[in-house]
Model the fold of this input.
Amino acid sequence: MLDIRWIRDNAEAFDRGLKRRGLDALAARLTEFDATHREAQTSLQAAQARRNEASKQIGAAMAKREDAAALIAEVARLKDEIHHFEVEADTAAAVVEQMLKAIPNIPAPDVPEGADETANKVLRTVGTPPKFDFAPREHDAIGEALGLMDFARAAKISGARFVVLKGALARLERALAAFMLDLQTSESGYTEVSPPLLVRDEAAFGTGQLPKFADDLFHTTTDHWLIPTAEVPLTNLVAGEILDEKALPQRYTAHTACFRSEAGAAGKDTRGMIRQHQFYKVELVSIAHPDQSAAEHERMTGAAEEVLKRLGLPYRVVLLCAGDMGFSARKTYDIEVWLPGQNRYREISSCSDCGDFQARRMKARFRKEGQKGTQFVHTLNGSGLAVGRTLIAVLENYQRADGSIAIPEALRPYMGGLTEIRPT
Done:
């Protein structure tokens, strides 16, 4: 959530930021309600002070047996004024708060202009797409031919956008997650966490999923939300806390199931495992000092890239334009892996620097050493990586003409030494 004081002092910059995201200017309307709130607060405090003073005068007058009728009438009038100013202040504050809840983060200065993915900027391409002496197939065709990927039975159990993996493919999914966790914890300095998969309203609000994106989530009858990503519980580990400056940065990783309704994805990626209601992901979250968040963003992106390097998968890193970024992000790098079956790059990780946007919603702060005041931390999140999409990339990049799949060398210790998967 943005700081209303910053908006008040930087109205033009705020409106420019909204325009870059394709939104209308809001500074004038926001500051009007904010001014109403502050003026009502000032009038309220003045009325309360006068009421207190008049009440003391009533007591003094009555002690001297003097006429206090005028003072009593004034206190009665002030009571009505106080109620009026309270209602006016609370109403204006509520409008400001509701507006701020729905406003996305302001893009960083170095984020490219643009309305959609066509304006994203490719920063680097790593690895060379493999060449085949046969027509490469997409992952769903490969998995079904192996007899280890079953969409029909998943649909019978749960409907569309689910899959059943069996045998070596189920083990490959587990191996990928274990490999990612080991890499991030042993080499990249992340602490592994096993968080809840169900969260309360305030947790989903803290990371920006609520209230704007409620339709993208699954809601339970117990008023919990199934997490769309482990970013939600991991980032909220510091919600409402004041950390010591020396405790920063804090880096967390988790392998969890993720649940998304895909409400806005009608007709997109309806085949295969690219876009599902339930999938697995290894998430990376950093709680950083404001002075270090930019460097932490680069570090996190590098940690996610390292997974693809170790697996020998070609990829590219893309800087998202202002109109293509997520709600809470001020700057985002997408990592896109090469999929031969689709003959294109597809997103496999999104690493975002959110600045203090989420921290304000969560009230997550830190105290500088030797100082009394506090500052909001900066939060960052990224996939390290999406497990299902990495499995897709392995299947498509390591496919063979006979229908078998070579196991990347880095995964073989996690596969019991298995070097290939053959049709059952």
Summary: The chain has twelve helices and 18 strands.
